[in-house]
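# step 3/5: fold
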Amino acid sequence: MSKLKFKDLLPALILAAICGICVFLLAGTYSLTKESIAKQEAAGAQERKLTIFPNARSFETFNYSDEIWEELTAQGIKPDEVYYAYAEDGSLLGYIFVNSGFGYAGNIVTTTGISTEGKIVMVIATAASDTPKLGKEVEGRPFLDGFTGLSTESEIVLNRDVSAVSGATISSRAATGCINRARQAYLLFVERGLMK
């Protein structure tokens, strides 16, 4: 058995050094850009809320008790975020629910507006990491407009109440699931007297 010589280890050491430098550079890039990315994400979220409720002048975070949090979690319907939408005169326009789920090849996030009458005002979906030309099609208005005006009283069934995107059934199902979870959370809040 021959002994390893330094020249035999040299390629591995060079590769390790290159990997170390890449990790250092990526970490540095992340730390330099994370604040900017967070601002862009916040601006995008605000834009989505204003698209749903264009007459809104403010959005306030809806906070609920640990007991409700546990109940939502146990039922598998806990939203990622919930907001009140208020008009200029302070009147309540409705609510915004942000939910996420896994589509065909990536995460789908839905922003669902619900009126104080319990109707879906509008849905916006983002599927940034899903398959282009398939899963990302759930972001399109032809699919999402099918939810507008639907009542929160009963479950929304894909291909009965809303048509799935052709070739993107899994992502369509995931988006519909997110919207149904928003609807169920809203009904629970209403039942508990926390929403109208």
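# step 4/5: annotate
The mean pLDDT is 89.
# step 5/5: archive (pending)
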